[in-house]
Every structure is written in structure tokens, then in C-alpha cells.
Amino acid sequence: MTSKARYADAEPLYKRSLAIWEKALGPDHPEVGTSLNNLADLYRDQGRYADAEPLYKRSQAIYEKTLGLDHPYVAQSPEQSGFSLPAQRPRRRRRTSLQAIAGDRREGIRSPTIPRPCDR
């Protein structure tokens, strides 16, 4: 199976995951932010920067609102680490700061538990 076919298989699963988290926890929960970030990573990996950018921005806004500006997910955002999405920039196969903090799930490493806003 080609990688393009794998992307096509993954996209509806990421979207379904996002819909489940939003329904279960509400649109501003950190898990929704993580799900948005995962879908944005998929789009970025496909070179779909215009689709990825608003998802990254929404994810960042959720983290800032619910976790606070001092949380590592906010402090190590793709924007602050110098990662950008313009199509002119050559694609690099590197981990974003969020992946480095959360753990790259493709390597089988689970992300740390995100404290719910009521647990802070």
C-alpha cells in the first residue's frame, strides 16, 4: 500500500477521533487540542499547509486557554520553535516541538496525561 493510500486511510480516523473528543469533552478541552494537532500533522506531512495551519492555531488557542501560558504545550508550540507552514519552505522530516514533548505516537510512545482544567 502506498503512503498516499495510508494518508487517505488515516484522515477519516483522525477526523472521527476529533469528533468524538469534541462531543465527549467539549470543543475547548486539551484532548481536542491534541486531536487537532494530530490532524494538522497529517496535513502538514502531505504538504497541505493551508489545511494544517488553522488546526494548529486552534490547537494552540485551546492549550493557551485551558492550560495557561506556562504549560509546555504552549511554550513549545510550533510557532515559537520556528516551525512554519509556508509552501515555499522546503519540507523537513523532523519532529515538531509538540511531538517531542508529547512523544511521537508513531514510535509507540504515549503522550503524558494532560491535566484537565478542573485538576489544575
Relevant terms:
120 residues; Serine Threonine Protein Phosphatase 5, Tetratricopeptide repeat; 5 helices; mainly alpha
First and last CA, distance:
44 Å
In N-to-C order, the SSE pattern is HHHHH
Please identify the top-level CATH class. Mainly Alpha
Report the sheet-strand fraction.
under 5%
- Gross morphology: globular
Helical proportion?
55-70%
* Tally of helical segments: 5
Biggest sheet layout: none
CATH homologous superfamily label? Tetratricopeptide repeat domain
Any overview of this molecule?
The protein is built from 5 helices and no strands. With 120 residues, it is mainly alpha-helical. The chain has a single domain (3-105), classed as Tetratricopeptide repeat domain (Serine Threonine Protein Phosphatase 5, Tetratricopeptide repeat), CATH 1.25.40.
Short structural summary:
The chain is mostly helical and 120 residues long.
Indicate the topology.
Elements: H1 3-25, H2 30-45, H3 49-67, H4 72-75, H5 97-102
Helix pairs in contact: 1-2, 2-3
